[in-house]
Amino acid sequence: MTIILPRRRLLALAGASAVTATLPGLAWGAAATPKRLVFIIQRGAADGLALVPPVGDPALGGLRGALLAEATPGAKLDGMFALHHELTGTAAMFAAKEARIVHAVATAYRDRSHFDGQNILESGGTAPYARKDGWLNRMLGLLPPGEARAVGIAAAVPLALRGSHDAANYAPSRLPGIDEDLLMRLSQLYGGDAQLGPIWQQAVETKELAGDIGGNNGRNGTQLGELAARLMAGNDGARVMMIETGGWDTHSRQQQRLGVQARGLDALLVALKAGLAAEWANILVIVATEFGRTAAVNGTGGTDHGTASALFLLGGNLRGGGKVQADWPGLSAAALYEGRDLRPTASLEIEVSSAIAAHYGLEARAVKRALYPDLA
Amino acid sequence: MPRTYLALNRFGLGWRAGDAPPPRDVAAMLAADLKAYDPAPQSLAALAPRRVAVETFKNYRDDRRAARAGEAMGMGTDPEVIARDVRVHYLDAAAARLQQAAATDTPFAERLVHFWSNHFAVSVQSLPVAALAGDFENAAVRPHIMGKFGDLLKAAVLHPAMLLFLDQAQSVGPASLLAQRVGARADAGEGRRIGLNENLAREILELHTLGVNGGYAQADVTAFARALTGWTVAGLGQRPDQLLRRMGVNAAPGDAVFVPAMHEPGAQRILGKSYGGEGRTQALAVLDDLARHPSTARHIATKLARHFAADTPPPALIAKLERAYVDSSGDLPTLYRTLIDAPEAWQTAAPKFKTPWDWTVSMLRATGIKQLPDRRGAVGALAQLGQPIWQPGSPAGFDDIADRWAGASGLMLRAELASRVAGGIAARTDPRSWGAAMMADAAGEATLTAIARADSPAQGVVLALMAPEFLRR
pTM for this one? Predict the structure, then answer.
């Protein structure tokens, strides 16, 4: 993505139908308080066991041997957990108590469909496709009107931001682009096709990837972070932002592919913090995925759809920063959920709503009721 | 055989979001589609009428002339700005065409509009044609696709856009009254000579009727060109309006008109027959005979068979269509019904690869989106995919074979466009049921599995739009 876009320009562009959805007619004036929120969705089921490996768990080596053997050790977070070695900027934030990780966490969803899982992660419902609006949109209703300016960096307003409150989207001309994962899946789909197979092979060989956050040696992630920071800068900037990332569905070659993803995510977070400068103190960043991946490595050097994963919370003024919070269920065969996945011991919905309540100084139960009304 | 998918995509323009699955008897559905055809759909009614587009072009041309003559620019109008105004008429009409295709209730008939418009191709590369291209399709093609080929032929080749595109507007009979007058002035050193232009005559014979090996010679082309002289466009051709008015021509600018003073007097011998009728009826009589010619029957049959059956059209289908054409004196609905009834048109051994236009239209219909995510809109997106609306590389129109369209960069561009479209609809789409509906009985197990395993709804949508099934018709 080559995005050079002053924030004023965004407004002009949005008005001129250059972007794919409309910016609602908001009176973007100065707000009473400067709190901001960023939700980064990891579409495709990010592997919490690789991003935040429980290196102190004796069962990890047996399950992940092949992957671990190739892995470079990352920063140690405590006696149990380390960070993926590409997450160096995140590790520095963790050391500065600006990052907190909740592990063995999952939404209310217990099956393994990306569509359904993402639908629940975004809608905040308890059954797929049961709710038409998203928890991030409902959260806007808790904010003073002047602070409820929401933008999604996406081709259209994502489900989490959809609902009765105004939300805009900004689509840089090359977003979402094509990521390596999509190319691979199309290659598979065309594999047996005598006409399309060779054509597509040729197309892939000459393609420069623009869509991966980790693409361009992490530069894509940096640009996305810089864009988000620009869109939030100043008194009239966006106060609530959603950023989409894809490419986390690492069924094969996970070591390499997840490395690229992690580098891109890290670059995004670093660029976001740098771009926000002093405003970093007013930010809560939530990084979440629809579910985790199998505890054991599969036959193609990857992992398959699982259950619990890791949730990242970041910000310059974070409550409980510098900690991995986990009621660790363990990775022994008996401890695994349905004999294969990391067992969820924490509720993503409760963690998100309590982090948001603390961030905005709101009452936790009221936030949970608003964001997740279907949750018992 | 996936009859439902073929009815929807080969005959129609693709499944439309929200539509119920087609009835079992898809042949009856297609026949009903032809009957329900509306030649003047409401969605096109808002387009600027021809005289407005023509007026814009005239302003542009007058300013250019003034500028060339070194005169002051009058009100200071910038010709480039007016050129843009002229282009706006094209952009509006092209966008309306795509919208109409995306929304129509009679997609089989609409596909036939596109087919005939491409058969009688004009190109918007020249500015006056850009002003008139939408009117060409809407006023010359649409009203005639359910009638006789001969009537469609006459309406198309005598429309001002065609007269301008193929230089007929400036063709003058060498022995005509006008040529004599102008020639005398040229002898005296004033102005330049004028004369015959064979372009339209040749393309009518080669592309629109007989076909390149249809049995005509250069002498036929020249004689036909002479017969066509006099047909021109009022107010836009090379001859200034004053001259036409002096000759008693009183048509609105931009209208096709027959000017007797430009017409070559005398009989013309074309394809072994002498056409003695002089004036405007001479060329009309030739066109009527061309429409009845057996070579035309074969040429049209071959093109229809290629469009609806396979790049290499089955000889049996060509023969059926040819016979139907001859027996019905070129009755077009008879040909369409022949296609529906012919098993060859339902074969899938070598399915058609969707052109960029086909694929884009079917994507719009399946997604229900109103606008393509391209800064330059529909026209820009189609241009990027290699098939700019009403701008084929030659008067032969866009190619109708896969070799032209199934290329590496084109396929990648489709994937990129699909990704952008998918991002816009993923939040309200379950790609599993949606993909199954749009691919109907053509959906393969591998494709459905790939969609179900996609890492996000957006990726699932892209895989469906890029599925081998959906890229073909």
Answer: 0.80
